[in-house]
Amino acid sequence: MSGRRKASDLLVSCLEAEGVAYVFGVPGEETVDLNESLSRSTVRFVATRHEQAAAYMADAYGRLTGRAGVCLATLGPGATNLVTGVADAFLDRAPIVVLTGQGDLERMHKESHQYIDVLAIMRPITKWNARVNDPAIIPEVVRKAFKVAEAEKPGSTHIELPEDVMAADTPGEPLDRTEPVHTDASSADIARAAELIRRAAHPIALAGNGAVRGRAAGAVRAFARRTGIPVATTFMAKGLMDPDDELALGAVGLQPGDYRMTGFGEADLVIAIGYDLVEHAPVHWNPNKDKEIVCIDSVPAEIDEHFIPAVELVGDVSRSLERLTRKTERASHPAGSARLRDAVRERLRRADDDPESPLQPPRVLVELRRALGKRDILVSDVGLHKLWIGRMFSAYEPDTVLISNGLAAMGFALPAAIATKLVHPDRNVVAVSGDGGFMMNAQELETAVRLGTAVVNVVWQDDGFGSIAWKQEKRFGRHFGTDFGNPDLVRFAESFGIPAWRCDTATDFAKRLEVALAADGPSLIAVPIDYSPDVAILEELGEEPGAT
Questions:
Q1: Does residue 355 carry a pLDDT above 60?
Q2: Residues 512 and 414 grouped into a single domain
Q3: Are 98 and 127 within one domain?
Q4: CA-to-CA dists, residue 57 to 72, 82, 95, 356, angstroms
Q5: CATH number of the domain that 319 lies in?
Q6: What's the number of domains the chain is made of?
Q7: Is residue 348 located within the same domain as residue 403?
Q8: Last residue of a domain, one of 117, 142, 170
Q9: Is residue 232 a contact partner of residue 249, using CB atoms and an 8 Å limit?
Q10: Among 1, 289, 313, 337, which is least packed, fewest CB within 10 Å?
Q11: Would you tell me how many other CB atoms lie within 10 Å of the CB of residue 330?
Q12: What is the rounded distance in angstroms from the CA atom of residue 288 to the CA atom of residue 345?
């Protein structure tokens, strides 16, 4: 029997045994024992200015490392402030473990100050959650929280920590960490999938978030080269294919017409590689339910009438694809449609012609791509700028464009970029936000300053909720309830001690971006953006407005 110690010390020892490097959060009265234990541990506590930001940081950490990020809040309002970030991790399949304080056990059966049923609130947005009602179960609860969070499909788990339980003395030691178990697809299913590919006249591949988590970029590229089958990706899977590869059809998911413009309409077979229905519904690319589907994923396919696989290869995505590739051979397939890809390339080429042109989205993306290396990371917030980034920004490696897509949660970029810089201090990290999303978590500029994380914040300023205005105008011919005012963003950033600039031309933006990327701390560039070009690029695609 091990010696006795405070339960909060045992819990932190369990976090250390899991290899936790950071806990992101806001302390509270009900977590004082836990925070004291963290102060004497190898785990670094990163105090954030809002609990939602802490959850976003854990989310980004989990995405980039494959190991669960950890966030912490107290009871009541602290716990409820976490909810959006927890839901984001749940839908974007990012492993996180959420820790929340709670009042003493003896007052949970009655009305009590700040007490709400946090377990019930977290239940729909976590894979598993539990209350530690006895310090003896801490090792089991922590081990299970991490195991469930990191298992495919990964996501959020939650542990509630009553104050009196954390202060109690208890024996116990952490349980040994075990790695997630990966299954293998059967040889018979591999052979059936290969036969479907051999028979197909117009096959096409759609790669998604699961292929990124499965570290399958090499396997996806090898499969395309071997078979000649073109590959489209979801927004979250940008970088799986080299954008300069002629078999790379680009990113789809802005609108249903994307699939028509990349050849899905003519396809008789779709190879879905780590595709997640949360990313974009299959009704958009299989509206008539007439396509055969090979599903390569870590878990069995979700039920959807437009997504009924003929064969499922369930197991490690990279390994399944490698085995399938060995069973296939190059055939003479139509190359899909290059209309969407070529329209995107042409729009970017035209944007690069005039360095003094107004700062429209394509021009800003050209300058960002030019300034960043292929392994540098762009973190996108949610808004109209996200649609431009998802459609047009070239990514050369997976996990170099981070997007909140399943939940599409505003306020994501700045906190996620801070965590990204902690994971990859050797890479440039740029957070691109609209002014709406930026102001939702702008307080985290102070966190970036305190940590010394050199994150460049590029804020596209149009004084409104641009994506909603765009949709309203397409549908009703006008927009309503979407306009707002902003502070002087340069002076706002400078009040945190951050260098900041406002750029009105592409030449100035390129110059300031170079300076910002060389800085040893955070910075901000405010970009008054001209959103007049249509992100749907309907003119280039020969589409009528409203046709998609």
A1: yes
A2: yes
A3: yes
A4: 11, 11, 11, 37
A5: 3.40.50.1220
A6: 3
A7: yes
A8: 170
A9: yes
A10: 1
A11: 10
A12: 30
Q: Which of 282, 304, 337 is the last residue of a domain?
A: 337
CB 498 within 8 A of CB 450: no
Report H helices in 262-360.
317-327, 339-351
**pLDDT per residue over 144-175, tens digit each?**
999 999 999 999 999 999 999 999 999 999 99
Do 315 and 353 have their domain in common? no
Residues 91 and 213 in one domain: no
At residue 351, the pLDDT reads: 84
What is the pLDDT averaged over residues 281-291?
95
DSSP 46: E
Cα 26 from chain centroid? 22
Phi, psi dihedral angles at 232 (to 5 degrees): -105, 155
Which token pair is 169?
């003395």
**348, 331: one domain:** no
Nearest to 445 by CA among 394, 500, 392: 500
Residue 83 in domain: yes
Q: What is the rounded (10 degree) CA torsion for 146, 147, 151, 155?
A: -30
| Cα–Cα dist 119/139, whole Å | 19
Mean pLDDT across 343-354? 84
Both tokens assigned to 261: 């413009």
The structure tokens 């917030």 sit at 381
Residues 106 and 254 reside in one and the same domain: no
Q: Which structure tokens are listed for 41?
A: 């541990």
CATH of residue 470's domain is 3.40.50.970
Considering only CA atoms, which of 83, 95, 153, 85 is closest in space to residue 123? 83
Sign of dihedral through CA atoms 102, 107, 108, 112?
Answer: negative
The verdict on 352 and 332 lying in the same domain is: no
For 394, the token pair is 């070239």
Task: Look at residue 547 and tell me if it is in a domain.
Answer: no
Q: Lowest mean pLDDT: which of 130-144, 390-404, 533-547?
A: 533-547
3-state helix, strand, coil in the chain (%, to 5): 40, 15, 40
pLDDT 10s digits, 217-252: 999 999 999 999 999 999 999 999 999 999 999 999
Q: What is the pTM of this model?
A: 0.94
Within a domain: 328: yes
Q: What is the mean pLDDT of residues 461-472?
A: 87
In angstroms, rounded to a whole number, what is the distance separating the alpha carbons of residues 539 and 264? 20
Residue 105 belongs to domain spanning: 5-170
State the pLDDT at residue 335. Answer: 62
**Is 492 within the bounds of a domain?**
yes
Strands 156-162 and 128-131: parallel
